[in-house]
Structures are given as C-alpha cells and as structure tokens.
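User: I've been going back and forth on whether these two constructs are worth ordering. Before I decide, could you fold them both?

Assistant: Sure. I'll take them in the order you sent them. The first construct and its structure tokens:
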Amino acid sequence: MSSKIDNFRHWLFLKEIFKISITSFGGPEVHLALFSKRLVNDKKFFSQSDLLETYSVCQLLPGPSSTQTITTLGYRFGGPKLGFLTLLVWILPSFLILTLLSFLYLSLPSGALHTLRYIQHMAVSYIIAASIRMLKPLFKDKTSILLAFFAFFICALLRHPLESYIKTPWMFPIVLLTGAAISYFINRNSEFHKEKKLVFNWIYLIVFVVLFISSALIGKLTHNIFAVLFENNFRFGSIVFGGGNALYPMIFEQFVKFKKVITYNEFITGVGLVQATPGPIFSVSTFITGLALSNYGVWGQIAGCIIGTVAIFLPGSLLAFWLFPVWKSIKKFRFFQRSFNGIIATSTGLVAASAYLLFLPLGLNWQTPNNFFYTNIVYQNPVNWLNVVIICVICILMFKTKISSPLWVLMAILAGIII
C-alpha cells in the first residue's frame, strides 16, 4: 500500500515538473521563482528552506544550476531513480523543440534565413546585459573585479593579437583554475571549519570520472566526430561555472573558432532561439551539436542532438548526486571557502569576454569576413554604427522593461520581415 502511495506521489511530482518545463522561459533566476511557486507554495512538496538549501548545493558545482536544482529536488523527494526521471522530464520539451528547430533552420531558404538576421543583435544584447548583471555584485570586492578583468583581458583583448596561443580550448579551464588558485592564496588567512571524516556515495563520482577520462581518450585516439563532440560537451558540462551564459564562450571558442564545425551565424542563431525555448539554457548544445553533425544525414543530426543533450547535462547531475548528501560538510572545506569566489569572478569575466567576441562581427566593419585581427578592420569606416545603435537600444530596453525572452525573439523575427 505504501509503495502504491509513493508511486502516485512520484507521478504527481513528475507531472508538476513537466508543467514547469513547458512554461519556464528565461534563465536560472526565473526557473528558481517557478520552482518556489509550483513546488513550494502551490503543491507544498518542499519547504522554502529545502529549496534554497538545494539551490545552494548546486551553486558549489559546475554545470546548469537550475537543472541541477530540480534534479536534486527529485533525488531528495524520491531517491536517485526519481532524480534521473526528473532530469529527463525537465529537459525533454527543450530537447524536442530545439531538435525540430535545428532541422527547420537548415531547411529554410536563404530569403527566410535573412529574416532571422536581427536574432543575432538580440542574442548579443542578451549576453551583454547578462554580463553587466553578473559584474555588478563583483564591484563590492576588489579582488573579484580584478579576477574578472584578468579573465576578460586574457580571453578577449588578447584573443586576436595572440590567437595561436589563446585559441586553445583549454584556455577557459586554465583561466578558471588560475582564478581559483589566486583566490585561494589571497584568502589563506581566512577562517575555515574543519570537518570530520565524511561518507560519500562514490559510485556517482566514479561514473563521472570514468566518463570524463574515457570520452577524452576515445575522442583523441579515434578522432571520430561523434565521440569528439560528446567529449567536448561533457567537458563543458564538467567545468563551466556561472550557468548558460558562461557556457556560450566555451562553445563559441571550441565549435566556431577552433574546430569550425558550425558557423558564427549558426551559433548566434542558436543562442537567440534558446531564449525563446522553455527549459534550461544549456539546451543550446542540442541545437548546435545537431547542426555540427547535419552533414551526416537525418539520423546523424538526430544523433548530434541526443549527444549534445546527454553530454551537457549528465556530468552536473552526477556531481550533484555525489555531493548533495554531505554538502553541509563539504562547503566548509578550505578549498571551497577560499577559492569559490575566484571561480565565480573569472566565470563572470569569461561571460564578458563572450559578449565582446560576439559583438566584434556586428559592431565593426572588416576587410575580410570572420578575420577579427585588428589589422583587418576597415580604416575609413571602422564602426558599424547601425548595428551598435540597435544593440545599445536593445540592451537599454532589456534593463528598463520586463519583456520576456520569447517576445524578444518574436520581435527580432518581425523586424527581419518588415525592415
């Protein structure tokens, strides 16, 4: 009898997760508000303190914070099985929508694709606005703002003068680890609490480590594009702090600049379209990895969408399941206390670097397309003032109005049709 009651409660829980997944437009902040309204206030599956406690756990980990939060809530409500079912239900709508959009995008005629041109402006404006919001809290701490500028300087301002050195896909994790190390040593005199011996469920960490290492080895040894793209996405999901906005520069650097498996226009269109899709922003990997494998036919593209989805979401969920049972003790460890601010600060700098790099093709005029060395700028008319004004206006409206992400995308498409 008890088992039937539990199964019924779990079904009701998953039903509520599905309702949230098809209405959750926006970033992690919007998602958290929806979790609070539907799961705490309306259905009373959790208390507000339960929700905030779970959200705090996920802030300690790399990966998609809102996805990790709702997955861990499922784990908390009904164990690991319900946790993974929660993950599947949460990402299913965005996976289906972005898979469909990846096919529609490729099947559109060039004239129709031209109507999507202002989505690029909207997407760049969105990332600029996100980077400004993320930078604001850092101004309270000099070390954090310096670390953010350090990350921006290395990955943005030095990107084109020293492209042969900076373009390596390992530059982002190197910058993140450097920020963590600097923060750790700067805060070496801060107090911390020692913890007694901890008991972990190591199976999730072991699976994570095995997948991380084996995917890297298989991709390196075989050079199979499917294995390589799985490894790329799995690595992104394993090291990115700061949510979907911090994921963009990694994908841009790896897929557009380094491997050239998608174009700038495809990438920036994906960034724009994911804002109009309910669910996690990390689902942008569904769209982009699908396009990256579109040359392998319909089934290759579908496989790409599946690979991008599984690889980007799996590592964060495994780490959350490993950490959650002992998080109150883990967060008191010296490394986390002293280095976490540095990781957040450098992640914010990477988002600002992403905004800068994505702005360059639109904001400046170039003699040779997609060559962003400063010597390639058109000297007589270097600034594309129309694009600059459009981006500035959109950024201001994003701060001054409460227009939702889907409406921004709709307005961008309408502008492309009318103008």
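The second construct, handled the same way:
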Amino acid sequence: MRAIYCGLLLLILTGCDKNEVGDVSLGIFTTKDIKLDAINDPLVTGVTCHVSSIEANLDFADPSDSSIACRQTGPITADMIARIDKSSNGEVLFTKSKSIFFKSMKIRRILDTENQTLMYVSYSTKETSGSFKHSLSTVPLWGTEAYNAAKVQQ
C-alpha cells in the first residue's frame, strides 16, 4: 500500500515542473511520455535550451536518454561571459531527478574559448547498458556583443 502512495505522490509531483513546455504521450498502452523542458541559462540569459526526455510515470526510474537543443534567444553580452565559470568542467545549470535511486539528468555549460562557443551538455549521472547517456548542443558567440570577449578574458 505504501508503494502505491509513493507512486501517486511521484505522479503528482512530476506534473509540477515549472520548466515543462510540452508533453507527448507515447500511446494509451504505456505510462511513458516524452517531456519537453525549456531551460533558460541563468547567467547567459540570451540562451534557451530545450530538453526532451522520457518519463515513466509509474516506474521507479526513468530512462536515461535525453536530447538537448540550445539557441540564442536574446542578446549575449561580454558581461555575461565574464560572469560564467570558464573551467574545463564548466558549471551545472539544471538538475532533474530521474529515479528514486539517485539517478539524475544534468545540464552543464562549458565555454570553448578558442572557438568562442558555449557548449551545453545534457547527461545522466548513472551508467545504463555500459554507457552514460548524453547529448550536446552548441551556441556560437559569432555575431554577438560577447564575440572576442571570450578570448580576451582567458
């Protein structure tokens, strides 16, 4: 009985995601849906990432697969680039639980200073079938106010 209550609570909480912009049903004979989230970069506010992932509403864990597409949706300034983490690890912008067993999906931003490009990687924190599932999208700084600022600040 406790498992049923926990399952219902998880089902209710999955509907509370403020980033969700779409929900695609995979059919009437499955409890899995494709969830579409819009993630705005908190420091580089001119970038929006859209992430799709599978949610298995009545399972204890969601599949690890995800896909990410990031685009410039506003100005990107030199000041924004000056405030971001420029280490090779970058910084985590978003985390979403994918399991009650400590698996999560994360989105990390990394700056490629040589090519003046922001890289956004979506990845699972738990190995599945011998692999950590991940997806990459890039946003070039070309044509923005921030262009060349990335190289100057090295």
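Notes on the second construct follow. The beta strands are 20-25, 32-40, 47-56, 66-72, 91-97, 104-112, 117-124, 134-140. The helical segments are 2-14, 78-83, 149-152.
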